[in-house]
Amino acid sequence: MITIGQLARYAGVTIKAVRHYHKVGLLPEPERDHSGYRRYTAQDAVDLVKIRTLAEAGVPLARVQVLLVADADEFAAAISEIDEALRRREEEIRQARARVVRLQAGDALVLDPGAAAMLDLLRDLGVSDRGLRMEREVWVLMQAVAPDEAAVWLADKLESLADPEFQRIYLGYDEAFEFAPDDPRLPALAKRAAAWLAGRPEMPVADPEVTALAMAAAGASSPAWDALSRASA
Fold it and tell me: What pLDDT, on a 0 to 100 scale, did the predictor assign at position 104?
């Protein structure tokens, strides 16, 4: 006969776990002896090891109770079923870990390499986190909805970013997002943008519905930018 502490130690569990298994009916709780202590048998230790092993394998405690009284064939069939469930779970975990690894790639997870490289360039130029988020959201949607047009616009954007004047204008627009719509700096910025665009070849016209959707999803609008659009028109 052994004490609850010895039982827990032999089975590799805590005394609290033994008491929990008593409470849920998995392990019968023996009567106290004349000294007031509960005494356990070797069979209790064997049963507790089985309970611990099944529980650690992810078997619900209600199912553990059934397996403890199953005959050899029923137990073997149940273990095979549990093993298959664990194999499926292992595959799900493997796929989840693969997704986590892809997430570490950042923008490359949801954007093609060209768009991801463009965002890296904007980040290096000092574009704000807000501006980067807007660009990312726009390109995610545009590449999904209009991939052919998006490829053309992306090539143009990358070419434009090689021009120092465009870089300055872009950074000016990024800074102006939070300006008041009557900020005196806006007209000059709009004039520079219009002059730069005047020397550029005409680009394919984007679907206005798709463009509006992408801009709305990115939150790419502010009173100052609306004022710049009106001044550049």
Answer: 53
Low-confidence ranges of the chain (pLDDT < 50): none
Alpha helices by DSSP H, 14-112? 15-23, 42-56, 61-68, 72-103
Q: What is the pLDDT of residues 183-198, one digit of tens each?
A: 999 999 999 998 988 8
How far apart are alpha carbons 75 and 200 in whole angstroms? 76
By CB neighbour count within 10 A (0-12 exposed, 13-18 middle, 19+ buried), where does 48 fall?
buried
User: Distance between CA 155 and CA 53 in Å, rounded?
Assistant: 59
The model's pTM is 0.52
- Spatial distance between the Cα atoms of 125 and 167, rounded to a whole number of angstroms: 8
Q: Which amino acid is at 42?
A: A
pLDDT for res 163: 93
Cα 224 to Cα 26, 130, 152, 193, distances in angstroms: 69, 15, 28, 14
Q: How many CB atoms lie within 10 A of CB 21?
A: 23
Please list, residue by residue across 123-157, b when 16 or more beta carbons sit within 10 angstroms of its beta carbon and e when fewer do: eeeebeeebbebbbbbbbbbbeebeebbeebbeeb
pLDDT for 207: 62
Of residues 94, 17, 84, the one with CA closest to residue 53: 17
20 contacts 57 by C-beta, under 8 angstroms: no
